[in-house]
Design the sequence.
């Protein structure tokens, strides 16, 4: 990114010294465990310490925001990641879950000023979930971890609130 003048803030992709809280949903755990592996691997490959990653498992994605809120409120983490997989079924059930999770996570980030990263995969089929959990469409857990690293470092750079 180039600037002609002034100050540009951007977060480095360096995870050394950063602490991460990860909330994982057990529902569709087959896929979520792959997202978690991807997140851990990404943090490690960016110089992060595996002991600096703490994981809390919740029953389903609907429960993620409450636990993300607790982790963010603890002040213990530079970023909180939410990992889940919501697969659309025959009813609108998944849509209600998705709406609550995205809204809840956004509220947590705004309330606590901690980066809260949305790593919830929302798909119409199991095949799409496979594609996003470490196959041809990549690994959304790794993507979430990269965003978490960048945001954690960016927030450290930005002017502090008065
Ligand atoms: N939870 C998910 O994480 N993914 C889903 O696909 C899903 N579906 O489809 O039902 C799901 N449901 C459980 C939900 O998140 C809550 O755990 C449950 O309703 C209890 O509050």
Sequence:
């Amino acid at each position: 990114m180039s600037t002609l003048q002034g100050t540009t803030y951007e977060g480095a992709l360096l995870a050394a010294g950063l602490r991460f809280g990860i909330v994982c949903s057990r529902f569709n755990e087959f896929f979520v465990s792959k997202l978690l592996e991807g997140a851990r691997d990404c943090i490690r490959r960016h110089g992060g310490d595996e002991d600096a990653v703490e994981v809390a498992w919740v029953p389903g994605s609907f429960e993620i925001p409450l636990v993300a809120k607790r982790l963010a409120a603890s002040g213990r983490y530079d970023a909180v990641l939410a990992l889940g997989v919501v697969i659309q079924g025959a009813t609108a059930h998944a849509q209600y879950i998705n709406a609550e999770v995205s809204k809840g996570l956004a509220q947590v980030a705004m309330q606590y000023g901690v980066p809260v990263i949305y790593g919830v995969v929302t798909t119409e089929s199991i095949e799409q979930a496979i594609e996003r959990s470490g196959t041809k469409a990549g690994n959304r857990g790794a993507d979430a971890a990269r965003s978490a690293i960048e945001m954690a470092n960016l927030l450290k750079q930005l002017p502090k609130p008065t």
